[in-house]
Each structure stands twice: as structure tokens, then as C-alpha cells.
Amino acid sequence: MQRIGLTGGIAAGKSAAATRLEELGAVVIDYDVLAREAVAPGTVALGDIVEAFGPEVLDQEGALDRAALGAVVFADLDALTRLNDIVHPCVRRLSAEREAAAATADPGAVVVHDIPLLVETGQADAFHVLVVVHAPAALRVERLVEQRGLSRDEAQGRVAAQVDDEARLSVADVVLDGTGTVEGLRAQVDELWHRLAEERAAELAAETP
Fold first, then answer.
1. Segments of 49-154 assigned E as strands
2. What's 9's DSSP letter?
3. Which residues contact 192 (CB under 8 A, 6 or more apart)?
């Protein structure tokens, strides 16, 4: 099994890269999806969040109001740290379960861990290959404003809450350029996929007596 870590700043294009990798045959473990599962109604993590931030972070049905919680944590780095300390251990447990299932189904699977906060959570050394989708912070702010409807202050807060570009790039094995079109990014993913397949084939050939 080949384990690939995939990350990138918010609005850099990571999701488009993950989608293409899945189309090419990778098993993609989306940590945003796992984070939602971790705080579903009835979970221990949701109870811990309510205890830490108050019942106002719940909606009328008792589910997590992500917008209300985001308004709190993205304006306060200490609050964001408290939230991460609650959610991240649960997400890691869920990801380990998904990876084990993928390995059982196909011992030769390519498993991509799609992790927005990969560097921030100290997982840079956990993968065979670490792929970073990069776009400068200023461009990502513009995308958040234009494409996701955030105010400029909100967009800047979301970007500032993540590790800076230099730290992310410093641990990358592969950097994909997220400044252009989605089609261009997908083409870069295709090239990476074929290169990794060739490298894996060469490794298997070398191991064969």
C-alpha cells in the first residue's frame, strides 16, 4: 500500500486534486468528511465542544452549527486550538479505520489522506509522499471572497488560521501549482499519478529475485 499525504492552504485547489486522484483509482480519505462524522449528534466530541464553547454552537436540531462555531474559533487562535484538541484525535481514529479497510480490500492500494491541516497537526513525516497544492495567500483570499461569499476579514482570518505558505512548502515532496485553471491542475495530477506508478513498478521490479 502506498500512503500519500495531500494538503494545501484553503482555496488553493486541494479538493480538485483529490477528486482527480480518486478518479484515477486512489482511495481518498477526506479529513473534512471525517471531521463532520466526528462531531455528529450524539458523539463524545460534540459534547466536549458544547462544554468548551457553549450551547450557542448548536442549531435548533441539536447538531453542530458550523458557521456559529467558525465565527468563534477563526477569530481566536486559542479557541481554534481548543477545538482542534477535541476533534483531531477522533479524526485520526476514523482515518486509521478507513485506511485499514482500504488495505484489507486491496493490499496494493494507493491511499490519499486529504488533510487541510496536515502540517499544523504534525503529520508531515507520516506518508511515503507528501503533496502540497500551492497558491499564494493573497490569491486564496480573493477566491474565498469571490467564490465562497466570505467577507474580506473572514477570508483573511481563515487563511491566517492555517500555517503559512513557507512552512507548508518546506515539507513538500511534490508541489502542484494551484494558481491556474482546474484543468491545468488536473493535468498536473495526471502527471504525478503516472510518475508514481512508474516509480512503484521500478521498486517492485527491483524487489523481484
1. 110-114, 129-134
2. -
3. 131, 174, 176
DSSP state of 179: S
Find the helix packing angle between 182-207 and 14-24, rounded to 10°: 50
Q: What is the pTM of this model?
A: 0.89
C-alpha pair distances (Å), 194 with each of 4, 13, 20, 56, 188: 14, 20, 13, 48, 10
Grid coordinates 506508478 are at which residue? 197
Q: Write down the residue that cell numbers 513557507 correspond to.
A: 166
Q: What is the largest CA-CA distance in the chain?
A: 64
- Strand partners of residue 174: 131
Please tell me what DSSP assigns to residue 13.
S
**CA–CA dist 31, 24 (Å, integer):** 19
Tens-digit pLDDT string for the chain (209 aa)? 899 999 999 999 999 999 999 999 999 999 999 999 999 999 999 999 999 999 999 999 999 999 999 889 888 889 999 999 999 999 999 999 999 999 999 998 999 999 999 998 899 999 999 999 999 999 999 999 999 999 999 999 999 989 999 999 999 999 999 999 999 999 999 999 999 999 888 877 887 77
CA distance 155 to 144: 6
The terminus-to-terminus CA distance of the chain in angstroms comes to: 20
